[in-house]
Write the structure tokens for this entry.
Amino acid sequence: MKSTFLLTLIIPMLAITGCNKRKGELTRELAAELLNEHLAAHPVLWCRFKDGYFDPAIRDGVIERVWVGEGYRFTYKGIKMVGAVIAENHMEIEFSPPLGMKPLKFWLKKDFGERVQKVTGIKEGQSPGTKEVEYETEHPFPPEMQSMKHYITNGQIMKSVFQKYDDGWRITKATE
């Protein structure tokens, strides 16, 4: 009788504490789970050209220089490749002034989503109870973007800071 009573108390307690894995150590698996939840709440509304692939996109006739003003836009060929996903009225490619006016990104009409491909490392943070996590992301490209995969990045390397609270780990800072 006593053992049955103890089991009815212990089993639910084990289930409750076992289900809250977020309170334990910050593992790569837990970090990836929390980061994917964070990324799902922050849509990806632009794509960036890979370093060194902007000139090949010009050479291949995917983009062209705009002669009125300064900038670039997608050609007819480029629009056929990405027109289904580019935001209306955003055929121009934006510049990034800190990188010497190098054209980098274009806007999308729908979110691709972004997810953690892998957590590459976890180290102690600068403050007590914090961890710094470095990870690589990927974009699950829709079928209509497959022909552009050669020119654009498929994700990025990022870092985030996690803080341990009484109810588990939380992301307190996400940087690129």
